Amino acid sequence: MRKIVLFILLAFFSSCISVKKWNEKLEIPIAPEKLKKDVDFAYEKLQKLHPNLYWYISKKELDYKFDSLKTTLNEPLKPNAFYQKLAPIISDIKEGHLRLMPLTKRLTKKEIKNLEYQKGLLSRYNFIIEGDQIFVKDNPDKIPNMNVGTEILKIKDIQAKDLLKKYRPFINSDGENETFQKYILALRWPSYFTAEYGILDSVQLETKYQNEVKNLYLKREKITKEEKQKEETATKKVTKTQKGKTNDYNVVTKSYNRDLQFPTKDSTVAYMKIKTFSGTYSKKFYKESFSTLKNLPAKYLILDVRNNLGGSLYEINNLYSYLVSENFQFIDDIEVTSRNAMFHADYFKGMSPFFTPFAAIAYPFYWVGTALSVKKTDERFLLKNNGIFALKKPKKDHFKGKIYVLINGSSFSAASILPSKLKGENRAFLVGEETGGANDGTVAGRFSTEKLPHSKLQLPIGLMLIKPHINFTNTKKGVTPNVEIIPTLQEVLQKKDVQLDWVMQDIEKEKLLK
After folding, report:
1. What does pTM read for this prediction?
2. CATH topology of domain 257-331+391-437+482-513
3. Are 416 and 436 in contact (CB under 8 A)?
4. What is the dotted CATH code of the domain comprising 118-219?
């Protein structure tokens, strides 16, 4: 027993010491020579692992940017000050999945425990960006003085527009797309703010609502142990239900990631909303959903992938098989940079401690399988098709009616590949806004997270070039809708869905003509 207690105490104090040392390093400036080595390290890794590095920027231009950055590194910089210089260069590569990660302070176990019994600060809201302005889009907890439509003017006496100006160079999209930026900045600016100023207990805001300017303190609210247990019990109750599993209940948003509804009394119109292609129980959801559609008089399917940032490639391939009536190949062969590129993939990343030992045992088999999966064709290295993305047959319950797809600038990655393929095959009518992800493919799939040796900044690099099997547009843009409808700020804040309304009206017009 004494040995166990001693071990626990040693583990506790070593953890505290490592946290302290890490946080101290964030404040220690790094010599210019070492920063330049980090710049070279990042570029070398990009050239070695990224399968289409010069897709949207020429080698000459990118060489110049990295070389120019090194000429500015003449004095020591703290890690995150260096981040602010290197991140915009990474952003200029114009690959939406590619971004440098700022360093954040680590927390002790006690601090983590305390946060478990506190509600968030800025994370309790959803925001919308309009130009250089930040507005509250949603306030689900109905916190006073933060009505939907409230504009954030200042945070810690810093102009909101100045924060956006500072953080905007850190974000990017695929290619020449410009619709993605405002959505991803609305999601990420609170995390950039937290990385810069730490996890705060409260923050002073200056806000404006209906022309009235107010100053207030936004504070973390504490929750009792009983309240937390009650919330966890309620969440478990939902997630363990059949609907909770099949519709993929999201414990963070407290909503289902996928859903099927029938907005008209005659059930001739089906509306399928997919918030993220998580892959969780998706096979069962689509099997049940399209079986239902086959047994109903549904003639129209509205597939809504707005604000869907992507996810499982397998899921969208499976979904596509329910939307077509002929054999198909969903994507082209996946390209990598070399035979050993996939050995750099983050094999253990995101894995729970319980599964890690089993994954370690299985690693030799993974290594052999990976080694045998690469083929060389015309000086290109391709992953051999293992059957998942080979020529496929449509599902027997495939939908035969008319398909509308709702898209916007926050339809990204897998949520761009699917509408790209549907539009390329003339199988769907797209309504909304140009997608944030590129029409002609993306670099994602598996990632290799490279840690810069001196600053310790992390750079996750996509290893797989994934392209839909279509005739490419070569526009370097997103998937463009057949009909463009972009809601105004007021329509968004008032929860008016003008894009869905247009589709419903178009369906009614078509019904009258039949």
Report:
1. 0.91
2. 2-enoyl-CoA Hydratase; Chain A, domain 1 (3.90.226)
3. yes
4. 2.30.42.10
